[in-house]
Structures are given as structure tokens and as C-alpha cells.
Amino acid sequence: MIEIRNLVKKFGQLTVLDGISETINKGEKIVIIGPSGGGKSTFLRCLNLLETPTSGSIIFEGTDITGKKTDINKIRQKMGMVFQHF
């Protein structure tokens, strides 16, 4: 359902995500844990392109959503995200 390949996200000289690869199958539940500032929220924001990855690809239901011709708004109709309130 979602395949992440070598996802990298940099903010200037700071590398927040460095070559993340993962496959999430339909119906599977995953947990992302780590310390504050470890890149968890950045990773989730990259999954629906609220944050643009520096490099790598995200394939959702067979479509590379990081492609320039992808209609991300159409993809987002099938993808949900719940934000944490501090």
C-alpha cells in the first residue's frame, strides 16, 4: 500500500531523515517511536507531501507520489493523517 524508498529530508545542512526505507501493507498498523527531534513528525509529513522530501520516493497504491505530474490532492483523498496537539 505504501512503500518508502531511500527517503531523505534535509533542512539546510541538517539531515533529519537519512535513507529511510519501509513497506507498509494494507491493514498493517505501525508505530513510530523515538526522542523529541528525531524526525518522526517530519517522516509522517513527508508521507503525504506536507513536507517535500529532498530525495527518495514514496509509492502509494502503485503511484509514485513524489513524481512531478502526480495530483497530490487526489492522492490525499485516500490518505488520512491525525495531528498531535501539544
Task: Itemize the secondary structure elements and their pairings.
Layout: E1 2-11, E2 14-24, H1 40-47, E3 55-60, E4 63-64, H2 72-76
Antiparallel strand pairs: 1-2, 1-3, 3-4
Describe this protein's structure.
It is a single chain. The protein is an alpha+beta fold. About 15% of the residues lie in helices and about 35% in strands. The protein contains two helices and four strands. It has helices spanning about 40-45, 70-75, and strands at about 1-10, 15-25, 55-60, 65. The protein has a four-stranded antiparallel β-sheet with strand order 2-1-3-4, with helices on one face. The model has no long low-confidence stretch (mean pLDDT about 90).
Task: Quickly describe the structure.
The chain is of the alpha+beta class. It has helices spanning 40-47, 72-76; strands spanning 2-11, 14-24, 55-60, 63-64. It contains two helices and four strands, in the order E-E-H-E-E-H.
Please give the oligomerization state of what you see.
Answer: single chain
What fraction of the residues are assigned to beta strands by DSSP? 25-35%
By DSSP, the count of extended strands is 4
Radius of gyration, taken over Cα atoms and rounded to an integer in Å: 13 Å
Helix fraction by DSSP (H/I, runs of at least 4): 10-25%
Structural class, please?
alpha+beta
Helices, by number, come to: 2
Mean pLDDT level: 90
Strand and helix order:
EEHEEH
Query: Runs with pLDDT <50, length 5+?
Result: none
Distance between the termini: 30 Å
Describe the sheet with the most strands.
4 strands, antiparallel
Which of globular, elongated, flat, extended, rod-shaped describes the shape? Answer: globular
Could you give the order of strands across the largest sheet? 2-1-3-4
